[in-house]
Specification:
With 170 residues, the protein is an alpha/beta fold. It is 25% helix and 36% strand. GO terms for molecular function: adenine phosphoribosyltransferase activity.
């Protein structure tokens, strides 16, 4: 299925010069939403996955669905200060600023196979930070999954040591 018609461009968001890829048209269409979930699951064929890590906040949309279908646990990675238990953190650069991500210190067990999922791969800073968090806890990143990859921002370069898959590329 071609998911591109369900992605809307928002000019100058969140700041001037940035073209935001809005996935809400895809989410509000039940058929496209279901097919996107199925297609993302298809990107994980024949992989043993113990945990699916969803990245704050739009990574939380598909990651729990993937975890359920894979028989895996779901782990949240949140922006700084949002998790209630002991955390580890990693700072990163974004297309339009900087940030810090946190994960509970007991979220991943040593040796667990981990799928990282987010909605968009842009500059790669967020995905790289999540991979570092997973590895600091002893997990193995088996793949980074995305709904969209913005290839012109070369984010894949930051996660080149990990398998990567995306449904759409711009």
């Amino acid at each position: 299925m071609d998911f591109a018609p369900y992605i809307r461009d928002i000019e100058d968001f969140p700041k001037p010069g940035v073209v935001f890829k809005d996935i809400t048209p895809l989410l509000k269409n039940p058929f496209a939403f279901q097919k996107a979930g199925d297609a993302l699951l298809g990107l994980t064929r024949n992989m043993k996955i113990d945990k699916v890590v969803g990245v704050d906040s739009r990574g939380f949309i598909f990651a729990p669905m993937l975890a359920e279908k894979l028989g895996a646990g779901f782990v949240t990675v949140r922006k700084s200060g949002k998790l209630p238990y002991k955390t580890i953190s990693e700072s990163y650069d974004l297309e339009y600023g900087t940030g810090t991500l946190e994960m509970h210190s007991d979220a991943i067990e040593k040796g667990e196979k981990v799928l990282v999922h987010d909605d968009v791969l842009a500059t790669g800073g967020t995905a790289e930070a999540v991979c570092k968090l997973v590895e600091r806890l002893g997990g193995e990143v088996v793949q980074c999954n995305f709904l969209i990859e913005l290839t012109f921002l070369k984010g894949a370069d930051k996660i080149k040591n990990y398998p990567k898959a995306a449904l759409l590329q711009y």
